[in-house]
Amino acid sequence: MENKSIILRILENDKGGKIVLSSLSVVVFVVAFCNLFIPESSIFHISTFTVTILGKYLAFALLALALDLVWGYLGILSLGHGAFFALGGYAFAMYLMRQIGDRGVYGNAELPDFMVFMNLKELPWFWLGFDNPVFAILMVMIVPAILAFVFGWFAFRSRVTGVYLSIITQALTYALMLAFFRNDMGFGGNNGLTDFKDILGFDLSADTTRVALLIITFFALVLGYLVCRFIINSRLGRVVISIRDAESRVRFLGYKVEQYKLFIFVVSAVLAGIAGALYVPQVAIINPNVFSPLFSIELVIWVAIGGRGTLYGAIIGAMIVSFASTYFTSALPEVWLYALGGLFVVVTLYLPTGVVGLISKIKMKKA
User: Fold this and answer.
1) pTM of the model
2) Lowest mean pLDDT among 38-52, 140-154, 343-357
3) Which helix or strand (DSSP H or E) is residue 113 part of?
């Protein structure tokens, strides 16, 4: 009851968040039930492919939530959040690779196939420990957090803001992409990490495992939302919003603006890393393309379309754009990128508050 009351207090006066999370819970339950308990011959059966796609969308929603925390409430437009997402994904993929053992193409119990192909004789030092799931999960959070802390420490102390900070974040993820494309980095080069067999001893291709990953991703999204909402509703959150609206005044009042920025930036990076870790076992691959600046820019579009500065708007935007991407990249692949860019321009010019803002305006007119 106490935990329940805490959740209710966090979501107090957050009608939109309650509606979005409740709706997603219903969708996740229906999809899981129809996949596991309704025969494949039935029209109501939902395929495992659909389960995987929905799980991927939820991971993207958590990533969009992480960006909305820094962009919508702190005013920092990060064009490099894909880097934190990718680092979390790679960290967990390293654990999945270690679980393959001697079932790989070359039958080497110690080295992943790409290392055998490159004639490596022993496991690189930075792969040590990733056979332990607890260690891997810690690295999923610690590695993005360290990168965000180091980057933020120098950037915020130097008082780099606005478009200059955005460009630097984009340069960061681009540099990491080039590094991970190198075969000698020890992360599979342009092919990345793939061919995963199981997770925590469970067959990764089994329907039950896929449904479990879907449910875990949903609860991670809910937990991430509650953490973000708790921060925003707190005194710290009010200071953060004040920094967004009038940084010089907050600084004049004696607040250590850099410390607040750094804290939010690191929390956001950790959430992005967790999203990446949940993404990898569901799509069964990760490669350096996830570091691509284009992916980080697309992430910004998700948040803008949904409505930044609302948290639940980021979730809506990620779900809408991800669904549209899945459909149009198969139906009209040559049109999708132009449509996405045009949609972003339209939203920026005519719907600055996104879908959430549009719904609010329609409700106000009806009232």
Assistant:
1) 0.95
2) 343-357
3) helix 113-117
